[in-house]
Design goal:
The structure is a single chain. The protein is built from 18 helices and nine strands. Strands 3-2-1-4-5-6 form a six-stranded parallel β-sheet, sandwiched between helices. It has a three-stranded antiparallel β-sheet with strand order 7-9-8. Helix 5 runs antiparallel to helix 6. The longest helix is centred in the N-terminal third of the chain and has 18 residues.
Amino acid sequence: MSKKLLWNTAEVYNWASTHLLDNVSENAELLKSHKCSSQSLLDPSVVEDLMALGVSKFAAKDIHEAMKQQVQEFNVQSKGPAAVFWDYENVCIPKDMNARTVVNMLRNKIEKYGILRINIIGDLSSKTETEKQDLQFSGCHTIHTPHMRKPEVADKAIIAEILFFTLDHPPPASIIVISGDADFASVLSRLRDRGYRTVLIYPKATNEKERKGELLLNAASERLSWELDILAKTDEPQESPKDILETIPIQFEQLMTGIPRVDSSDIFFELLSTIRNSQKDGTARKSLVGQKIAQHNSDIYKRDAFISRNISNFQEYVKAAVDEGIVQEGGTMGWRWLKVTEPPQLPFERKEISWMGGF
């Protein structure tokens, strides 16, 4: 049986008054005074009705869309089949952590998606016997895929295992992929379109792959950070300028030009990525960005890295980014926009290259 959302006026008021979006929370009293229920807010005609009561068009649409999103979350089956496909060559257990501990942290975070089967796939020949035993004793199903001088062996094995899972489990089952490999973008996108709940757990390295990384992140219906959500890491020690130059060139540019640099734990990545993928004519609607972030990861503000910075909601998330100088905010009441502050290009000296003869 699927859950049904049937809220009365009092329940709608409690929901609206604590909502992350200003356009929803600021109209909580109005919704209460006009005895709005969850069903009335789901009717598309509610937008015109709210506008007739003096609510701006953008705020009325936000209230309607926010309730639709709330219903979608409620209509997901509470427990169902779910499988984890862990690209172990792309995302490994940190050297300073025990495999059993990490698997338990992973299981605690994703058990809400259903009855789990964790598949670890990759070339395990370089892993220690202790690590492999810990993975097996933790209840994981390990699939060893030696390369044998052939490329993408693990990727093909993961896709094959996903295919076998879908043959036995029709939608709405949950498929959880742990990887930063952009080659899985097409698979996740097609599974999502077929009704599967697709969850991507991505490593920090995904952030630095630009266009390919964005394609992978946008292919899943939900996404979690390997470092921030699963391993529960907070701010990491500051890197030296040399390390920044070698690993994240854009951060080095920000350091040299005096622009505030995003800390190494990259807590603003979700915000920046969502703004870039939602923008039109250079800016993104603030309420839309907030809705998308909540849809991708409803527990994002429970991250330890967020708690350590006193970020408990979307408004504080945006304010922290604005204070860092990496996001700009503007607009009027009911229509607020966000924009990523792009770093200026470093000046460089053009050098003429003369080719010697003989070619």
